[in-house]
Amino acid sequence: MELFRKIWNWILSIWKDPVWSKVISAGIILLISTVWLKYSNLTFKEIYNGLIEGLAFKAPIFVFLSLIAAYFLLKLFQKSFKRKSDPIWNEQVGNYKFSELYHILANQNFPVETRGMSWLGRKPPEDDLLSMFYTYITLFNRGLSLDDELNGGGYLYGVLAPKLVSYGLIDKIEAKNLRIDVMDIKYQTSELGHKFYALLEKSIHLNPEDEKKIKHKQGAKRS
User: Fold this and answer.
1) Nearest to 119 by CA among 155, 146, 148
2) Does the keyword Transmembrane apply (predicted)?
3) 3-state secondary structure of 125
4) 165 CB contacts (<8 Å, ≥6 apart)?
5) Residue partners of 186: CB distance under 8 A and separation at least 6
């Protein structure tokens, strides 16, 4: 098996050579021609004359012009349907492209009720993760600790932040509390989160419809 691989790689290296590739091509054509002559009733001269006659065949001018027009139309269609690279939507954000992560968050909500919300009689939010990330970005930039959400039912700290950690948008920072000898956990916007938010701002600026949707949800939550 190893010998076959070496031989195959050697053949490929020769084939890629600009000189030897032409020699091999000519040899293959000659071999095919020889086999054809041997097993057909045509002579080499007859084959040659037939080839010359085919090349000298005079096609009507409209056929020639139609072929040229078809060629340029095909090129035009290829350019029209060729997908252009978008500097924003194709930007890599961790394991995702911005467009992929945008649509994942926009099409996903996480209405999980915490015990604190149950005590306070609050229902979990039905909004998508994208709008919630956009809404609470300032809070995450500052850093969210358990003390910041004592009156909020714990949804941001116990549900939303850990969910966004799974996408790399939020960092989970642990520090030991020496007073009570436990680990304090703080959630803060990660480097990827800042990058994603910057791209989100650009996309909103370029697409006012997205801005209306997110701003509407943001206003609904604050009211």
Assistant:
1) 155
2) yes
3) coil
4) 171, 172, 187
5) 143, 144, 145, 172, 173, 174, 175
Structural domains in the chain, CATH included, are 2-81 (no CATH), 92-222 (1.10.10.10)
CB distance 136 to 221 below 8 Å: no
- Residue closest to 47 by CA, chosen among 61, 30, 63: 30
Report the Cα–Cα distance between both ends of the chain, in Å, rounded. 71
One-letter amino acid at 65 equals: L
Q: Which two tokens stand for residue 112?
A: 């999980």
pTM here?
Answer: 0.56
Cα atoms in the 13 Å half-sphere on the side-chain side of 142: 6
